[in-house]
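Sanity check

After download, print the first record. It should look like this:
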Amino acid sequence: MTAVKICGVMTAEHALAAATAGADLVGLVFAPSRRQITLAQALPIVAALRRYPRRIRIVGLFVNAAPELINTLATQCDLDYVQLSGDELPAQAATIQLPLLKSVRLNASPHDQAWLAHTLRQCTSPSLLPNTLPAELRPAVFRLLVDAHVAGQYGGTGTLADWEQAASLAQQVPIVLAGGLTPENVAAAIQRVRPWGVDVSSGVERDGVKDPHRIAAFVHAAHQAG
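Expected structure tokens:
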């Protein structure tokens, strides 16, 4: 079954809506964005998810942040994964203490090429458990996340990613597909790309706010298609 990540969650209410709908991962944005939250805002969201009877993996999203800051926030927020969505390079991520989701946009940039080469050289873990990753695989790439390329933006634009390129990459390594996904198109995306997981933010919002009905519809469509 295709894993589902609901990203850009800003309230405990919406995090629990994602959990109730069957989402596997919830993303908290710590980078400059209209969905950015602070540590104080993140803590009640994390607490609500940790009380949920099913384990929901929590992902912290960062853009070009110092590894020391990432590690500190990851510990304070009890994160499961770190998502790097900026221009970070593998060498710069080597001291991050959690497995990584790394955004790539398949635009032939040096940063993308470095991560593609790094990931293809190493085995990605088939498990969702961070402690199964041997230390020698640091920086451990849990999954590459394929997003749309929009000049000057680091995600959350609602623009479709390149499904053809994403499908080609998915034949080589498990990926998470992001970029412009909605409850209406996620089934087609999964059938075309065959990703390990899908990621959505703006596609489950109404007027810029997460909508529980759209979250539920997205998770249902993704799980049925996968």
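If your output differs, re-run the checksum step. Summary of this record's structure: Residues 118 and 159 are 26 Å apart (CA to CA).
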